[in-house]
Amino acid sequence: MIVENTPLPGLLLVKPDVFGDERGFFQESWNLRRYTEAGLDRHFVQDNLSFSRKGILRGLHFQNPHSQGKLVYALRGEVFDVAVDVRADSPSFGEWYGVTLSEENHLQLFVPEGFAHGFCVTSETALFAYKCTDFYRPELECSIRWDDPDIGIDWPIKNPELSKKDQNGQWLRDLSRDALAVW
Questions:
Q1: Which of 2, 87, 100, 104 is the most buried (most CB within 10 A)?
Q2: Which member of 35, 73, 97, 130 is catalytic?
Q3: Is 36 helix (H, G, I), strand (E, B) or coil?
Q4: CA 163 distance to own-chain centroid
Q5: Is-catalytic flag, 130?
Q6: What topology is assigned to 2-20+28-182 in CATH?
Q7: Nearest Cα to 107, choosing from 135, 77, 76, 74?
Q8: pLDDT per residue rounded down to tens, the chain (183 residues)
C-alpha cells in the first residue's frame, strides 16, 4: 500500500495493494494495523454506500461540530471526488483537490475532519463507499454550492443533477466562522 500526501494538509491519496489474476482480484479495503502504520490512524464508526447514475453530483457537504473524516472509494463505476478545506485559519482554506476514483484504479481518498466533500458520477452508474469517523448528524450538516466561484472546482460535468439540499447550498464566503471547522 502506498499513501501519498496531496497539496492539502491531511488529505491523503491511498493506493491499496491489489492482487489479481485471470480469476479476478483481492484487495483489503481497510486494515487497522496496516493503515495506522501508514499514518491513517482513525477510528471509523459508520460505513455508508451511495448508488448514483451518471450526471449526479452530491456535495459539497461537511458537518460541524462532530466533523467526519471519510475514507472514500468507488466499488463500481467511476466518480470524480472532491475535497475542499473548510478549516478556519488553515493555510489552504477554500482550496480544493479532485481525483478520479474507480473500480479500475482502486484508489481511496482519505478526507480528514474539517473538509467539505462531494463527488459526481462520470460512468453510467457508480456504487460509492464511505468509512466515517463520526456519526452522521443531519442537523449539523452544511452544504456548500458545487459551483462556488471562490472555490473554482473544475468539475468534469457542467449541468449536474442535484438534490434540493445541494441546490440550496451556501457560498463559502457567506458561512460564519462558527460554522467552519477549526484548523
A1: 87
A2: 130
A3: helix
A4: 17
A5: yes
A6: Jelly Rolls (2.60.120)
A7: 74
A8: 999 999 999 999 999 999 999 999 999 899 999 999 988 999 999 999 999 999 999 999 999 999 999 999 999 999 999 999 999 999 999 999 999 999 999 999 999 999 999 999 999 999 999 999 999 999 999 999 999 999 999 999 999 999 999 999 999 999 999 899 777
Phi then psi for 37, rounded to 5 degrees? -60, -30
Domain ranges of the chain: 2-20+28-182
Q: List the grid coordinates of 158.
A: 457542467
Of 78, 103, 86, 63, nearest to 156 by C-alpha is 78
Cα distance between residue 142 and residue 140, in whole Å:
7
Q: Answer yes or no: 61 catalytic.
A: yes
Per annotation, catalytic residue among 61, 73, 106, 117 = 61
pTM tops 0.85: yes
DSSP count for the chain of H helices, then E strands: 2, 15
